[in-house]
Design brief:
alpha/beta; Nucleotidyltransferase, domain 5; 23% strand; 37% helix; 253 residues
Length: 253
Amino acid sequence: MLLAIDIGNTNIVAGIFRREKLIKTVRFETYSKSKILNPKQILNSKFKTYRIDKAVISSVVPSWDNKINKVVKQLFGVRPYFVDADTFKRLMGIKLRKPKEIGADRLVNVYAAQKLFGKPLIVIDFGTATTFCAVDKNGAYLGGAIAPGVNLSRSSLHEKTAKLPLVDLKFPKKVIGDDTVSAMRSGIFWGYVGITEKMVRLFKEKLGKNAKVIATGGLAGVIAGKTDIIDTIEPNLTLIGLRMIGEINGGRS
């Protein structure tokens, strides 16, 4: 079995694959204000009954890398493979001026998406940041765009103003809000629908109108439900991509 772990800025997500089937997942906060996280205890409680043969990890939080590396070795007796830009040198073209700056999760996502859905394509990840990634008809990663995520925008409105509350992440019933909370929800959610539609249209001007649009991330379903510009939602895209990479290199560093 293969263990895939995505260390993100907001959450750490881990999943167990039996061949191509994702059979169990766990998600926990990267940083928790309420308690001290014990990743060893969490992973052990969820996955202790599985025999892990390979482990593949993507990370955008370097301070977590050694912790997770040690935990995986201790619990499962395997040495995890950490994905980076070098992983993809022989897997797909990367047309970036500074490839090593790109987040490993974005590379994993575009690699998995083109294997699953073809090319050209646009991958949108509604995470801590909302990222847009472009893959051309030859399968080369061209780059993309990065915007603040929905949660980040919501928190900033509350933290950087004197009177605006921290609103729940609920899509508003109407566009024109008649109180502060409904007005904030409208601006946040309909604003992100607008960002998504505009960015996709601009990307398609470069990639072609036939470029498929794949969405992932926690709020992908919410945004996709309000626009017809997204073709497919794959919430486990990063884990699936990590599984694919593990099959290629054996999950060994």
